Each structure stands twice: as C-alpha cells, then as structure tokens.
Amino acid sequence: MKFITTTIAIILTTFCFAQNTIPTVLEKLNKKSVPYITVDELKSRTGIVLLDARETKEFNVSHIENAINVGFDKFDSKKVTTIIKDKNANIIVYCSIGVRSEKIGEKLLKLGYKNVFNLYGGIFEWKNNGGSVVDNKGINTDNIHTFNKEWSQYLKKGTKVYEN
User: Which residue ranges does the record assign to the Rhodanese domain (predicted)?
Assistant: First the structure.
C-alpha cells in the first residue's frame, strides 16, 4: 500500500505542479464518482458525519472541528462501519483538495453508505474561504499541513506546514 501511495503522490505532484488551480487539478484527477459539496454548503449543514481522509500527521497539524480521521493509506472499513452504523447518514469526506477523499468516498459507497459527499477543494478550500481548523488538542490554529511544497500553492490562507 505504501508503494501505491508513493506512486499516487508522485503522479499528483507532477499533475499539480503543472497546474495552478484546484478546479484544474480536480478536473484532471477526479472521476466525479462521489458528488461534491461546496464549502458554503458544508457550513450550512447540520447532522453530518465529517471524515478526514488525510494521514494522521496531517490531521494532527489541523483538521475541521469534529472530523474523524480515517486516513488514506491505512483506511479501515471496519473502523468506519463501527463508528457509522447508519448507512443513510450524511457523510462528508475531505482531504487536502479532494482527490484522496474521492477515493475514500468510493469505498464508503461500496460499503453501502448512500449519502456520501466529497468536499470540493478539501481543507485548503475550507481554510481559503474563512473556515476554522483545530489542532490535535482541539485548539484553533492557522496551520495547515500541505503535504509538500508543490501542493502548498493551493492554500491561500493560513500557515503552510510541509513536514511534521
């Protein structure tokens, strides 16, 4: 699985470095297999389950409050089905910009969840549009883990963290 993640990271970095907007990257890399939800739509929703598809080190730097980290490399479907028993729950998955979250969303749909959405632009777009994030202690922060320097170009607001 580590090889697959590394390969995906190299491909994504190559694509992203050549692109300069989140919409352009999402158009190239996503299949739109999981319906998008916008940041504004998320802000107006209640009664949702928010899943963070980034790795633990990214999640610990910051995440959207009340999100549950399910990761990408070590995604555990049994953990998810234990936490979310209602297959009709409104689930919103996010990652950095929306690529990994689409893949996790696809897995959730295969597990039988019916109301799964991918946050368009991910946590970057959330922060770019004034959304707040918390660290692993639940304290508000401006820090956002941007995966690497190339990906950081899509974060316009907040403090960029590459390694942690």
Answer: 44-135
Total number of domains constituting the chain: 1
DSSP for residue 136:
T
Q: Which of 37, 64, 91, 95 is catalytic?
A: 95
Phi–psi pair at 63, nearest 5 degrees: -160, 165
For residue 62, give its domain range.
Answer: 22-161
Point out which residues pair with 161 in neighbouring strands.
145
Within a domain: residue 7? no
Tokens describing residue 74: 């070590």
CATH of the domain at 80: 3.40.250.10
The pLDDT of residue 95 is 98
Nearest-angstrom CA–CA distance, 103 and 99: 7
Global pTM? 0.88
Active site residue 95: yes
Is 26:34 a contact under the CB 8 Å cutoff?
Answer: no
Q: Which of 37, 30, 31, 33 is nearest to 12 (CA)?
A: 30
Quick check: 70 and 76 in contact, CB under 8 A? yes
pLDDT for res 35: 98
